[in-house]
TrEMBL record:
It comes from Pseudoalteromonas phenolica. SUPFAM superfamilies: FAD/NAD(P)-binding domain. It comes from the Bacteria. This is Amine oxidase domain-containing protein. Residues 12-279 form the Amine oxidase domain. Pfam families: Amino_oxidase. GO terms for molecular function: oxidoreductase activity. Belongs to the carotenoid/retinoid oxidoreductase family.
């Protein structure tokens, strides 16, 4: 069925390349940097300790065919991987750690606010994502004014540097603010049986409501081991991986992409183009007529890879730091995920979405925050810190940004019949699993597997 060119060697492009190899005569994956993996790469400090770009614990999907491809390397090499039944996540809010769920515990509000928040949440009229003009409208009609103004507003000022009125209603899901915990577990379980409340309330423990899906993390190193397995599989299937190169030009004829020109001038014929990097780059490379006054804004983030001299007090794999006045937004606690018998390190990654500080001063502030919140002992010493800046971290999910992304993808879909937009060019998906499912469905449809 001709030649398939895939642009972007992140998880979307890699998975797409393996799927496409079943149908196309040749598949070439174009990756701009020296390694595949995108945000699933790992990084080593000078002591050769591995850190990831944020939290990446793998979970089986509900689709056996996808699992067989995605986790082939893990099933074949179980000795290299830890496997778990539960992803253990905590979160802190109002200065307290809730140590059995990633969702905010409403009873950590003041007693007066808790009672009000609870009654407002139960009596909220509800409004669908499509009906809400912005996050404020969605939040106030689904969760009520206390949660909207005392939780959503300050947290989105911290996470997105934006007011709720500017943001797209979907964005709260990205930050796991779609569900809340009640102090009364029995009441919570009873209410969760009612559809209207199920989507707004969380189980009070991650041991409840388990899906049965296995979770995985490498025993001794970072998540890039998964990327290595996938690259091996892609190569076994005949995929040609071209590193350190980009698409300079897309040539087309009669609404079909016919050829791509690489940055070194090489021309590759193409019967199907799969694009997994932002759609704007395809618009430019193809010379499609496009004008826009919307300039996407990104929250430049930084990752702080910290090593302490004493063990962490929180035993979870990661924790969401939902504190308005802390710079840290999430902490990944590697010793709790790695092979404990072999790991005597006390290392973590703290993600920061916005701070007035940077470098060592910021790392020192983060260490103090972790001590104050009780993730680390008060007298623990920070023995090593490294900062990695991610200039294009999280986009600011404003209505303008989301709508413009959709417009760009629609424009390309209208312009070319043989271009598929996935991954970073997806209209709707952001998380790894949404991206993988969309990739699977799109390539399956494209390649007429059934
Ligand atoms: C800070 C942060 C935290 C996140 N946390 C989570 C999380 O906790 N859970 C979760 O499920 N998801 C999370 N995500 C989202 C997740 O990282 C993405 O869903 C996933 O990595 C996207 O995969 P991708 O292949 O689409 O893109 P990427 O991982 O970005 O890969 C794109 C690839 O394309 C390459 N590339 C870029 N430009 C070019 C070019 N011009 N030519 C050729 N190649 C190019 C890049 O080098 C890269 O390898 C997070 C994202 C961010 C930014």
């Amino acid at each position: 069925m001709g030649s398939c060119i895939i642009v972007g060697g992140g998880i979307a492009g890699l998975f797409a390349s393996i799927l496409a190899s079943e149908k196309f005569d040749s598949v070439t994956l174009i990756e701009g940097s020296e390694k595949c993996g995108g945000l699933l790469k790992s990084w080593k400090n000078k002591q050769q300790i591995s850190f990831d770009f944020g939290t990446h614990i793998l979970s089986e999907t509900a689709n056996d065919e996808m699992n067989a491809i995605l986790f082939k390397g893990i099933y074949e090499h179980p000795e290299l991987w830890n496997s778990f039944d539960v992803t253990k996540v905590s979160n802190s809010f109002s200065g307290k750690i809730y140590d059995e769920a990633q969702f905010i515990a409403l009873h950590h509000l003041t007693e007066v606010d808790y009672k009000l928040a609870l009654s407002e949440l139960l009596l909220a009229p509800g409004r669908s994502l499509d009906e809400a003009k912005n996050l404020y409208e969605y939040a106030v009609d689904n969760y009520g004014p206390i949660i909207t103004n005392k939780i959503f507003r300050p947290l989105f000022q911290k996470m997105q540097q934006a007011e709720l009125e500017e943001l797209h209603p979907n964005v709260h899901i990205i930050f796991a603010f779609n569900r809340f915990i009640l102090s009364d577990t029995t009441l919570s379980k009873a209410l969760k049986k009612i559809d209207k409340f199920d989507s707004k309330l969380a189980f009070s423990s991650y041991y409840d409501g388990l899906s049965g899906a296995k979770k995985f993390y490498p025993k001794e190193r970072g998540i890039e081991l998964w990327v290595e397995h996938l690259c091996e599989q892609a190569k076994e299937k005949g995929v040609e991986i071209r590193l350190n190169t980009q698409i300079a030009k897309i040539n087309s004829d009669n609404n079909h992409v016919t050829q791509v020109v690489l940055s070194n001038g090489e021309e590759l014929n193409c019967s199907q183009l799969i694009w997994t990097i932002p759609a704007i780059f395809a618009i430019r490379a193809a010379g499609v007529d496009y004008k826009s006054s919307v300039k996407p804004e990104f929250c430049p983030m930084s990752l702080h890879h910290l090593v302490f001299d004493s063990p962490f007090l929180d035993k979870n794999y990661y924790s969401n730091i939902n504190e308005f006045d802390c710079d840290g937004f999430r902490i990944t606690l590697y010793p709790n995920i790695l092979d404990k018998k072999k790991s005597n390190l006390h290392h973590c990654t703290v993600e920061v979405l916005h701070s007035e500080l940077s470098g060592n001063a910021l790392s020192a502030k983060l260490a103090d925050e972790l001590k104050a919140l009780g993730y680390v002992e008060k007298n623990a010493q920070l023995v090593q810190s490294d900062e990695i800046k991610v200039p294009m971290g999280f986009p600011k999910f404003t209505n303008e940004f989301v709508n413009e992304k959709v417009r760009q993808v629609d424009l390309l879909n209208d312009s070319f019949k043989n271009m598929t937009l996935l991954g970073k060019a997806s209209k709707t998906e952001f998380f790894v699993y949404g991206i993988l499912q969309e990739t699977f469905d799109a390539i399956k449809k494209l390649a007429h597997y059934e």
